[in-house]
């Protein structure tokens, strides 16, 4: 795996070179789409990279929200609650998701012009578990990781945009007959959305939220998205 910031990732990822490289384009869109209330930004990157004519639709790029060189994502977001839908997006987008050590607890950290040591602290795990900045985040990440492992479409599927608005994004991932619809909500209140399906279905099961059943009428789905959260429909 290689760290590549600029340029065409296809120059680096190939059977004779690297298995994967860092996806810095989507890194930027992941946090700024929440900060600016502009999901059109990350939707554009997803389509450009992974859509039907995407440049990198067959490349397993390394997806991340922060790392050893950039400010921790908890310091970039203006609303701490946005950590949860952001990580939902990270674990359902195309690519290989990664968590920078300590960020599973919601740690903050910013670099200065001359020093980036705040990005690389020595952590006392026992103390963090007792005094976690985001107590529900570690278990949430474990749920998301298990969900991704259980759904081949999330690991290996293609990408199709379904619907996008300033604070919501819906997309579909498909692989070997399995289609998963992912709906992300960055708003601080519930939002009702509706969309047409790519393939006929009678109902969905929300695998992220206790298996809730979602009925389909005339190939049309209407759902309410919880605030600062997501749905993963199978």
From TrEMBL:
Residues 1-116 form the Glycosyl hydrolase family 13 catalytic domain. It holds the Pfam family Alpha-amylase. One of its GO terms (molecular function) is hydrolase activity, acting on glycosyl bonds. One of its GO terms (biological process) is carbohydrate metabolic process. Keywords: Glycosidase, Hydrolase. The keyword Hydrolase applies. SUPFAM superfamilies: (Trans)glycosidases, Glycosyl hydrolase domain. This is Glycosyl hydrolase family 13 catalytic domain-containing protein. It comes from bioreactor metagenome.
């Amino acid at each position: 795996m290689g760290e590549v910031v600029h340029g065409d990732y296809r120059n680096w990822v190939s059977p004779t070179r690297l298995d994967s490289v860092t996806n810095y384009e989507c890194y930027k869109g992941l946090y700024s789409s929440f900060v600016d209330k502009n999901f059109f930004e990350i939707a554009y990157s997803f389509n450009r990279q992974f859509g039907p004519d995407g440049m990198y639709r067959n490349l397993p790029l390394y997806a991340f929200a922060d790392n050893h060189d950039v400010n921790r994502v908890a310091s970039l977001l203006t609303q701490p609650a946005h950590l949860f839908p952001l990580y939902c997006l990270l674990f359902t987008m195309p690519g290989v998701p990664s968590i920078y050590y300590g960020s599973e607890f919601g740690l903050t950290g910013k670099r200065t012009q001359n020093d980036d040591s705040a990005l690389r602290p020595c952590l006392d795990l026992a103390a963090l578990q007792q005094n976690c900045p985001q107590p529900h985040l570690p278990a949430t990440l474990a749920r998301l990781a298990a969900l991704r492992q259980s759904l081949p479409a999330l690991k290996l599927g293609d990408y199709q945009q379904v619907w996008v608005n300033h604070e919501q994004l819906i997309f579909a991932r498909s692989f070997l007959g399995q289609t998963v619809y992912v709906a992300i909500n960055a708003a601080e209140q519930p939002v009702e959305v509706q969309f047409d399906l790519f393939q006929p279905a009678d109902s969905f099961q929300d695998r992220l939220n206790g298996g809730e059943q979602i009925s389909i009428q005339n190939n049309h789905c209407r759902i309410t998205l919880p605030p600062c959260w997501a749905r993963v429909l199978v």
